[in-house]
Design goal:
Elements lengths: L3 H16 L5 H10 L4 H16 L1 H9 L12 H16 L4 H15 L4 H16 L1
Helix pairs in contact: 1-3, 1-5, 3-5, 4-5, 5-6, 5-7, 6-7
Amino acid sequence: MATRHQVRQAVVSLLYAKEMGNDTDEFRDEFLEEHKIRNKQREFTKSLFKGVVNNIKSLDESLDAHLDEYKVKELGVVERAILRLGAYEILHTQIDTPIVINEGIELAKEMASDTSPKFINAVLDAVGKESK
């Protein structure tokens, strides 16, 4: 059974794939099966992915308010996916903000550049403080 961290890795990967033009239900199902994300975790993955996609405009607006030099659209695709997922979880789920921020940092360490964890931490922390 996949962990919640693996689910979040999958969501970031699916968001990345969507931006690269691989946005079909068949692709998503094959990806989740390859990564052994099944049952409740598959439903959790799909709900996070759909939540981000369905709220992308408001998520980007919220993130843009906390970005000094850049806008979300100017960030790297992986960083953008991590931030969108984190913002979605902070703003639209009952998951504790510190957990979401920690997951974002860990995802950045694994999937993004060396400077990304600090950046992801700062932006998601600002989103979390605003949402209270």
